[in-house]
Every structure is written in C-alpha cells, then in structure tokens.
Design brief:
18% of the residues lie in helices and 9% in strands. With 662 residues, it is an alpha+beta fold. The strands form five sheets. Strands 3, 4, 5, 6, 7 and 8 form a six-stranded antiparallel β-sheet that branches. Strand 4 and strand 5 (208-215) form a beta hairpin. Helix 5 (303-322) runs antiparallel to helix 7 (401-418) and helix 7 runs antiparallel to helix 9 (474-483). The chain is globular, with a radius of gyration of 25 Å. Bound molecules: adenosine-5'-triphosphate. Adenosine-5'-triphosphate (ATP) binds at residues 27-28, 105-106, 108, 202-208, 210, 224, 226, 260, 282-285, 288, 333-334, 336, 346-347, 349, 651-652.
Length: 662
C-alpha cells in the first residue's frame, strides 16, 4: 500500500478498488516518539501492571471549535507521552503534518500510561519496520536475559524474502512468562498440530501471520496459528513480554460466544513456510468483517442483519469491559466471523486492563495517554497525541480507554451502514471529520437540544445529514452518533448503549446467553527439555489427570532406563476397572469456568492415519464435538456469510481498500 491510496474521496463516486483507506488506515498506530514510554509489562499477572496515569475523572478534552486546516496529514508516528497537564484546553487552529508515510497492516503500537513508573523499557522506542533494519540501540536479548551493550542477534537473523526478524535460539518456554494458573502442559507446536496441506496464509498483521493448522490426531479439527513476529527495534525480551501479555488477556476472555477463543501459546519451529518463534493456537475464523464489508454484495445486506452484527460486536465489547479489559483497537479487521456466522472479537495485542488494580473491578479507572488504535476508529482525544498533527500538549489529556472502545463501536456501526468509513481520522485536518463535527453541533442546535443528555432517546439525525441518511431510522442514527460523539465526556458509555431502547430491540441470530461450547484442541503429547538438554516426549493424558500438570502434578522427568522399561509410561498405572463398569464420561464442558486447559476426558479416540501417539487408554469414545454455535430454535436466522460477490476472498490478505466518505 502506498501513500497515494491515502486520500479521502466521495464514497459513492469512486470505485472501491481505487480507494479505500479503511484497510490502509485501519492499522494500529505506531508509537515512536523519543518521549515515548513503552508501557508493556507482559509477563506478569495483572496485578503487576502498574497503574497508568491514574487520574481521577477529568473533563475530557474539547474539540477545537475552529477546525480549519487544509488536507489531512498522512502520518503514523505518534507521541505517547504521559502528559497530564491540567492547563486549560486551548482552541487552536491546527497545522497538518507534512510527511505522507505508507504503512503496512501491522504498524502498530499501543501507548498507554500504565508503565509510567515502573517500566524498565521506559526510554525505549518501539517502531515497526517492515525491513527489519537494526538500530544501534538494540540490545542482545536471548531468552530472558538482556545485555544492553551487545547487538541483538535477532537483527542478523532474517527470514529470507519476508525479512522477518527471527528470535535467537533457544526459543523461550512460554511457561516462563505465564502465570501458574495458565501454564501449559504442552508448549511445542509440532507435538499436537500440523500445518494444513494448503499451507496458505489466511491473514496477517504487522506483527503476525495467521495460518490454518490441524490437529495431529484428528485432521478434521482445524484451528488457526497466529504466528507472532518481532517488530522492529524490539528485543526478544520485549517480544516475549508483549506476546505473553496478549495471550494472557486473550485467554482470560476466551469463554464468551463473541470472543475468538485462544487456546495455547506454543513454540513454533522453523519450517519451509514459517520462521521459528511463538504462536497462538486459536479458534479458526472464516473471515473477518472487513472482508465482508469489502464485498460488493455488502451494500445489499439488509439493515437488520447489519444491526445484528453490530449488536454481537457490542456484546463482545461489553464482555471485555465487564472483565476489566478495554480492547482499544476495535475495527472490522478485528471481528472474525465463525463458520456459523457468529461475530467474535479478536486481536488483543494492545488491549489492557483498565482498572488500577486489575483484580479489583471496583478500583479506579486507569486512564491512558498516547496514540493507540487505528486512525479511522480512534477518537479525537486519542488523535491529539499524534505528533504529526502538532496539537498543543494542553489538548493531550489522559483518556478513558472504554470511551475509545465506544467511539470505535460507533464508527463500526457507521461503516456497516454506509459501507465505507465515515472519515479517515478524527482530527481537524480531516475535512470529513470537520463536517461531521459541524453536523453534530447543527443537529443539536436545530433539532435536538438534549441530544447529549443522558436518557434522551429522541430520534437522532435524519435524511438531511450525510452520515445519518443510510440508517433510515432516527433511533439507529442516534445510537451511532452518540457512540461516535466527538466529545468524550458526553459520549455514550456501554451502559448507555445497553439501556438504549433501539439497541435493546435489535434482534440477533445469536443469543447472548447461548451456551458457549468450543472445540478445543486435543493435547496428547508434550516434549520438554530436562536440565541436561534431553528432549523427552510423553503422553500428556497419561501423566496429567488434571488439566494442567503445573497446577497439581508435575510431569516427572524419567530416567532413560525408566523410559526404556516403560516407553508408554503406562507401567505404573493402577489396575483398570472393567470397561463395562465404568460410568460414562461427564459431558464436555465449555471453555467457560475455571481455566481448564486440557480436559483429558474430552479427548476422542485416535481415529485415523494421523495418529502418532498411542491412544489414551480407558477413554471411551466421546460424541462428536458440538459445533461452536448452537443454533436450534432461533427466532431470527441470518446468513451473514452469504454475501454475494467476491472482491476479496481472504480477509486481511486483501490489498484492496475501501474509501472514506467525506
Ligand atoms: N483465529 C483467526 N482465524 C482466522 N483469521 C484470523 C484469525 N486471527 C487473525 N486472523 C486474520 O489475520 C488478521 C490479522 O490478525 P490480528 O489482527 O490478530 O493481527 P495483528 O498483527 O494484531 O494485526 P494488526 O496489528 O495489523 O491489526 C485478522 O484481521 C484476520 O483477518
């Protein structure tokens, strides 16, 4: 993608292929200011994350009343300072940045204020560089050691054509970075999974590549491997912390029908197709919402169906917030559709706990500072941190990350209905955004003075407003505009949204209280290294009566004599009861509940040619794993996946773009 794509255009007058900045701008932002404080501290449990700029609720920043600029600036370098100045907000005419820089999908970075006090990386910059060029500041860090003086070996290890930086060996055991309760029995990808024969990339981001994989023991069980890559200037240590934090959050949320399930964090070996590193084993999504919107047939999708999708996404966001987590990068690319058409949030790469004490949901809200998210979906209070926009620092006020999510939801709703993003970025240099702000104020002044009042459910803007007319319903436009209120302090909260009568009335084809049942991967084998470097492969099921051997029974390291004598580790097993006398296994539980990573009882019999490990004894055949979305007696049936046309067949692999409305 080039910067030349990066212009706003009239929606209906431009061919989709020529425009679209939705994908282009739908990137995570990169923080790369010298003042930037990297605030990730990923490998520790939530309680160790320091509070961010722990301000109490402060008035959110006002939009400048004079929003006069020329063309927008196409910049993606953003300050992430923790400026918490309390100086009065000035209304100033802003100068657009100058340099147009194209970025790839993954130019990402979060910048939060949570590490203000304790990050040892506080002065480091984290910049994505698709070419993997090293910088002098890079430090050697293999495994969990960091030696600042030496060059990082990773900079000399590239992945052929793709120039992806490789982690130095040995790859660190993920369990070193995971809290006890989610430590894993098996951390080697190849112990239990194989790549799909097609070996195609089904999606990618700035720091990952997603591939279809299969269970080694039951080939029809497909999953996604999100292979994580180091980003530019990132030390291995930072990589491990960043990825383990994303995993911990994703895993914590993986028990809701509208969240993409993340099962395991594994070590991935180098193969012909992929470089070594870490990866997530995830529920496989069919495609993302962005790919759906790109299809020409999307325009013909009924509004009720679009609203259904919106409500599902909103439920996913509500669930995250209820768990004390803000997603912070909501956009259609981060909503996956399951094979049944259920919308599921994904990509928690810049998500964060938003309470000062993550374990105490009644503790104060932890505000953020800095540029995070993706420009079309990031609210003005976040865009103030974009260094290229040259906003006054007095505008850069700590903001509530939940309001960021609400704004993103509003823009997603507008995008679903209008088939395009409403504007490229919510800053004064974007004419589309300025028009929207003017329209917002006009509507309040002329039509609904109480529009921003809590509990006011009078209809929102109608046909005369460009970004409202396609809703064909003043109540729907109310919800979209209230969520995407440029003013953070009056913006709809998630509570407001769920109390809104129009929102409540949206019929969905998935019930919020649907039992969430997911097909978990079969984990049978674990290979680990003992202190002397031996690789010992063993059968997880025979050694782990519980879900996680680290919790109760550690897998014993066996002597070679013992292995020779009892290769299958079955010898000491207690005398089995007669099969007929055994009670049937308990029904498979969903992923909800107490973090049961591996339910041995769910392990089906090894069925076929792919078996590499002896079957677990005394495990009766289980019924076929239920589909992830039960859909019997549904009052409403939608066919979200049956969207005609095929401008794009794969999700983020697509390079075409959707234009922005102006
Ligand atoms: N479990 C999955 N199943 C199918 N496709 C997936 C899955 N996870 C991710 N993808 C695809 O890969 C894309 C990139 O994934 P993701 O957003 O998690 O990576 P990322 O590096 O965080 O991306 P970015 O930072 O650029 O937003 C998604 O937009 C989606 O299209």
């Amino acid at each position: 993608m080039t910067a030349s794509h990066n212009h706003s255009t009239k929606i209906s007058q431009q061919p989709i292929s020529s425009v679209s900045a939705l994908k282009f701008f739908g990137k995570k932002l990169l923080s790369s200011n010298h003042e930037h404080k990297l605030k990730k501290k990923a490998s520790v449990p939530p309680s160790f994350h320091s509070p961010s700029t722990n301000k109490t609720e402060s008035p959110s920043s006002k939009l400048p009343s004079s929003l006069k600029t020329s063309r927008r600036a196409n910049s993606f370098v953003h300050t992430t300072n923790n400026n918490s100045s309390s100086s009065p907000i000035s209304h100033k005419i802003l100068r657009p940045g100058s340099a147009g820089i194209s970025i790839s999908r993954g130019n990402r970075h979060s910048s939060t204020s949570r590490n203000a006090s304790n990050s040892k990386f506080s002065n480091e910059r984290m910049v994505y560089n698709p070419y993997g060029v090293s910088t002098p500041s890079t430090s050697l860090s293999s495994s969990s050691t960091t030696t600042k003086k030496d060059p990082d070996l990773g900079f000399y290890l590239h992945d052929g054509d793709s120039n992806i930086r490789m982690l130095p060996i040995p790859i660190v055991d993920p369990n070193e970075y995971l809290p006890d309760e989610i430590k894993e029995a098996s951390v080697q990808f190849s112990d239990n999974f194989v790549f799909d024969d097609e070996n195609k990339t089904i999606g990618w981001g700035g720091s990952c590549e997603v591939r279809k994989i299969r269970s080694k023991y039951r080939k029809k069980d497909v999953f996604a491997l999100k292979k994580l890559n180091m980003i530019y200037n990132e030390t291995p240590e930072k990589f491990y912390k960043r990825c383990s934090k994303e995993f911990i959050i994703a895993k914590h949320l993986s028990h809701h029908v509208h969240i993409t399930n993340t099962f395991l964090l594994v070590k991935v070996p180098t193969t012909v197709y992929i470089t070594r590193g870490w990866g997530f084993i995830m529920e496989l999504g069919l495609r993302d919402l962005f790919a759906m919107i790109q299809k020409s047939g999307w325009r013909n999708v009924a509004l009720v169906e679009k609203y259904c999708i919106f409500k599902q996404v909103a439920r996913g966001v509500k669930f995250c917030h209820d768990q004390g987590i803000a997603h912070r990068d909501l956009k259609p690319e981060n909503v996956l559709l399951s094979p049944e058409g259920v919308c599921k949030l994904t990509d928690f790469g810049i998500s964060d706990w938003y309470h000062t004490d993550p374990h105490d949901l009644s503790s104060p809200i932890k505000k953020c500072a800095g540029m995070i998210g993706s420009p079309p979906y990031a609210p003005p209070e976040v865009m103030y941190y974009d260094v290229k926009k040259h906003y006054g620092t007095e505008l850069q006020q700590p903001y509530d990350p939940r309001a960021l999510d609400c704004y993103g939801l509003g823009i997603i709703l507008m995008t679903l209905v209008n088939n395009v993003i409403p504007f490229l970025e919510s800053c004064s240099c974007d004419t589309g955004f300025r028009d929207y702000c003017d329209a917002y104020e006009n509507f309040i002044r002329l039509h609904n003075r109480g529009f921003r009042d809590r509990g006011n459910h009078r209809p929102g803007p109608g046909m005369e407003y460009h970004l409202a007319r396609n809703f064909k319903n003043g109540h729907a436009s109310r919800v979209a505009w209230r969520l995407a209120d440029p003013e953070a302090s009056t913006r709809y909260t998630m509570d407001d949204l769920f109390e809104d009568p129009w929102f409540q009335g949206i019929e969905t084809c998935v019930d919020a209280d649907d039992e969430f049942v997911c097909k978990k991967p079969i984990i049978k084998t674990t290979t680990y290294e003992n202190l002397r470097g031996f690789h010992i492969t063993t059968d997880v099921a025979t050694t782990t009566p519980t879900s996680n051997p680290f919790l109760k029974t550690r897998v014993p390291i066996r002597s070679m004599v013992d292995i020779a004598a009892h290769p299958s580790m079955m010898a000491p097993a207690p005398e089995p009861a007669p099969a007929a006398a055994q009670p049937p296994p308990p029904p498979a539980r969903s992923c909800a509940g107490a973090e049961v990573l591996f339910t041995v009882k769910e392990t089906p019999p090894i069925s076929d040619e792919t078996s590499a490990v002896p079957a677990t004894p005394a495990v009766p055949a289980t019924p076929a794993t239920p589909k992830s979305t039960p859909a019997p007696h549904r009052a409403v049936v939608h066919h979200h996946l049956n969207i005609t046309s095929s401008l794009v067949t794969s999700s983020s692999a697509a390079s075409s773009q959707i234009q922005a409305s102006t």
